């Protein structure tokens, strides 16, 4: 009798303990986006969101987004954009498109985690550069509880390569790209007009500019040659043109006229009856 009662007692006690164990609330942790509350807690790094009743991590955040440079002259190859100070994100995307034709060239580039909170987006310029200048890149962050949290823009511009001002003659103001998405003003470079009268002495045909990227014809303007005087007793010193844009200082011509020539006079006689001579000058207009 006692033995049977003991068996019943211990059996009842065992069943009671099982029932008690089953009914005691058990505490355990769950992962992201799993219902939480009461005895159900969230894994490390997650918290039970009061609004949704789900385990969630903190929302992603960042300090800044930026391009490697605000302009580039390249139209092909890879261009880098960055997000810095990123926290609580397990993926970052860099959607990129040009500002022409809407978003027909939109590409969502998956970012690379460089460590230290920095992520990089590698943009294929060839996909977006056709006819484009301004390129738009937005940066979005994600984790298991949040999708596409905006970090900021990392916009840049594709600028035409710089072109020097034309060296060929032109009379109008022209513009050329300066390589930084702007223009350089190229003023007219036509030579100033030069008239024939302003040219120095020359013996050949000259072609001075007419101020309009053309020339006009100027014939020789050398003074004709002038001979030096040759008359007797000319003192010299006159400067005369040689006909070839040079001059000559005329030399002196010495007076080499002969002395006066004696002439016979018949009106005078001496006492011996002989004839007497007297001198009279003879005029001569030349040199001997």
Q: What does it look like?
A:
There is one protein chain. The chain is mainly beta. It has one helix at 2-23, and strands at 28-30, 40-42, 47-48, 55-56, 64-67, 71-72, 78-84, 91-98, 107-110, 112-115, 118-124, 134-142, 149-153, 156-158, 174-177, 183-186, 239-241, 247-249, 262-269, 275-279. The strands form 7 sheets. Strands 6, 8, 9, 12, 13 and 14 form a 6-stranded mixed β-sheet that branches. Strand 3 (47-48) and strand 4 form a beta hairpin.
What tags apply to this protein structure?
288 residues; mainly beta; 6-stranded mixed β-sheet; rod-shaped; 31% strand
Quick take:
By secondary structure, this protein is mostly beta strands.
Give the averaged pLDDT, no decimals.
Answer: 86
Helix/sheet category: mainly beta
Shape: rod-shaped
Number of strands: 20
Percentage of residues assigned to helices:
under 10%
Rg value: 57 Å
Uncertain segments are: 20-24, 266-271, 277-285
Would you list the SSEs in sequence order as H and E?
A: HEEEEEEEEEEEEEEEEEEEE
Largest sheet: 6 strands, mixed
How much of the sequence lies in strands comes to: 25-35%
Distance between the termini: 192 Å
Q: What is the helix tally?
A: 1
